[in-house]
Amino acid sequence: MSVFTVTIPQLETARLLLREYRQSDFEDFAAFYATERPHFIGGPLTREMAWRGLATHLGHWALRGYGFWAVEDKATRQFCGHVGLWYPEDWYEPEVGWVMMHHAEGQGIAQEAALAARSFAYNTLGWTTAVSMIDPANTRSIKLAERLGCRVEGLFDHTRLGPMQIWRHPAP
Fold first, then answer.
1. What domains lie within the chain, and their CATH numbers?
2. Rounded distance, CA 97 to CA 91, Å?
3. Cβ distance 128 to 171 under 8 Å?
4. Residues 79-110 as b or e (16 or more Cβ within 10 Å = b)
5. Quick one: average pLDDT of 134-156?
């Protein structure tokens, strides 16, 4: 039996480890997606659909060569959410995205991880631009996009998620 593997590079910041997903991340992942909190990104989801979502993140790495990382607090080893690079079929253009678990909000973790992911996109993958697609009512993500130096440049009407603001990241 052959095993298919994908290498996901690890990124390290002062407080965080951006790494591959692990089976142990799934309980927190599924618990988050079972609530109303991810309604801006297609939730809530059943455990089965959360499993498919996690598998989609891993599959994105295999198909595109980049994707979302699981974000881990180095001090506590706790799964904090996922941040990374996203470009599924019918998406506007390559994106820097973030999703934080409730316990990780308001601590600068998403910003720290998003800066690391954006740096990887620009310095390793050679991207010359990136966007973040944000529901106009998602004020927390909009504030983060502003802190990252992004500027809103229009709307994208996603077939499933509806209208999303296009936030352009600063060039490398």
1. 11-168 (3.40.630.30)
2. 13
3. yes
4. bbbbbbbbbeeeeeebbbbbbbbebbeeeebb
5. 97
